[in-house]
């Protein structure tokens, strides 16, 4: 039985993550050989966004509990990255409360990513000791409180965050290929977690917490592991994002990012990692097109400027998805499940056609 479960787990992980990585690779090729800088920037932002949404999906999708606080962990990753990568001369001026050993720190791309992810997971591990013991509605509301508290810290901790002025002079280490690599790893790890024992137990608790507890599932522990894991992915995304942007401030880890991330997850499908990727892609492309319309230039066609059009259209699409397809575009199936369904439908259609053709002949022979 364990061997059968192991083979099923491996098949699901390889099938789902393999197809998604191939798709991401095609996007990376488009960005790597793009003719304009805007295409390259759009592709890199897409990869970073996928990591953010996959991190959110790892908790919200598997537990069924909406989280409004994961933007705080993205901020943790970004600020830790600034502390480790901004040149020492500049850190002396902008981080006046920082100890000397950290002022002298000048870390590379990969070590910074790992430390930022661990920092986000560590913060979540402490907070999760309280949050994950609450009921579902209380957890959702507490994550909103976490977002507000984190923003207050980022906004007022002058010696470490520069407050509302923000941080600058971050080195640009994130390229299209490094973003693709980190995004691919995040997708594979998220799929592995979904089909792991903890992930499956968490999904059982999502459907019926009382029945899951009665079956021996430690719901609090499953939620805690998912909470810490997803926070680590979110902080990883924050570090990747910070090493692509020269500067940032506290407002970039607040309500606007939360609602955009939830909209992507709802549109693609909250229950699947594939839905997170698809939702991020749909919203990224749509936002870019609508931004051009807002600026009055749609592929060279001059149009009147419409301020706020992107947010308005995104909100309408999210509402339509919630009304007419509440489980998102991909619903409950990963991309490999959709491929299998299409193959079965095609085979069933071919079988039905051959059966129809053979029936008259059989009847005539009789």
Order of helices and strands: HHHHHHHHHHHHHHEEHH
Structural class: mainly alpha
Write down the Rg: 23 Å
Task: Tell me the overall shape.
Answer: globular
Strand content: under 5%
Q: Please, what is the average pLDDT?
A: 87
Total strands: 2
By DSSP (H or I, 4+ residues per run), the number of helices equals: 16
Question: Could you characterize what this model shows?
Answer:
The chain has 366 residues and is an all-alpha fold. The chain is built from 16 helices and 2 strands. The protein has a domain at 2-248. Helix 1 runs antiparallel to helix 2 and helix 10 (197-207) packs across helix 12 (219-242). The radius of gyration is 23 Å and the shape is globular. The termini are far apart. Mean pLDDT is 87; it is low at 351-366.
């Amino acid at each position: 039985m364990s061997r059968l479960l192991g083979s099923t787990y491996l098949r699901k992980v390889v099938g789902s993550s393999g197809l998604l990585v191939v798709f991401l690779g095609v996007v990376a090729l488009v960005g790597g050989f793009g003719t304009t800088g805007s295409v390259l920037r759009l592709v890199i932002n897409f990869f970073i966004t996928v990591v953010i949404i996959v991190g959110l999906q790892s908790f919200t999708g598997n537990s069924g509990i909406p989280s409004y606080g994961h933007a705080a962990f993205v901020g943790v990753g970004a600020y830790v990255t600034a502390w480790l990568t901004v040149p020492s001369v500049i850190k002396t001026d902008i981080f006046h409360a920082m100890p000397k050993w950290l002022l002298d720190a000048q870390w590379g791309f990969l070590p910074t990513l790992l430390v930022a992810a661990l920092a986000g997971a560590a913060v979540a591990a402490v907070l999760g000791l309280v949050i994950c013991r609450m009921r579902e509605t209380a957890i959702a509301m507490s994550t909103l409180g976490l977002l507000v508290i984190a923003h207050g810290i980022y906004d007022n901790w002058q010696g470490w965050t520069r407050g509302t002025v923000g941080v600058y002079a971050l080195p640009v280490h994130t390229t299209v290929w490094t973003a693709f690599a980190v995004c691919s790893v995040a997708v594979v790890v998220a799929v592995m977690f979904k089909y792991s024992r903890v992930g499956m137990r968490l999904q059982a608790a999502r459907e019926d917490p009382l029945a899951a507890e009665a079956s021996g599932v430690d719901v609090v522990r499953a939620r805690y592991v998912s909470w810490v894991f997803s926070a680590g992915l979110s902080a990883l995304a924050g570090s990747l994002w910070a090493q692509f942007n020269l500067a940032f401030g506290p407002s970039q880890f607040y309500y606007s990012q939360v609602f955009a991330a939830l909209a992507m997850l709802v549109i693609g499908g909250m229950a699947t990692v594939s839905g997170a990727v698809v939702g991020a892609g749909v919203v990224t492309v749509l936002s870019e097109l609508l931004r051009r319309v807002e600026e009055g230039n749609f592929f060279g066609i001059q149009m009147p400027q419409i301020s706020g059009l992107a947010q308005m259209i995104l909100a309408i699409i999210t509402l339509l998805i919630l009304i007419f397809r509440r489980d998102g575009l991909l619903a409950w199936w990963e991309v490999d499940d959709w491929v299998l369904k299409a193959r079965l439908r095609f085979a069933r259609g071919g079988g039905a056609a051959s059966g129809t053709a053979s029936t008259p002949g059989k009847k005539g022979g009789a």
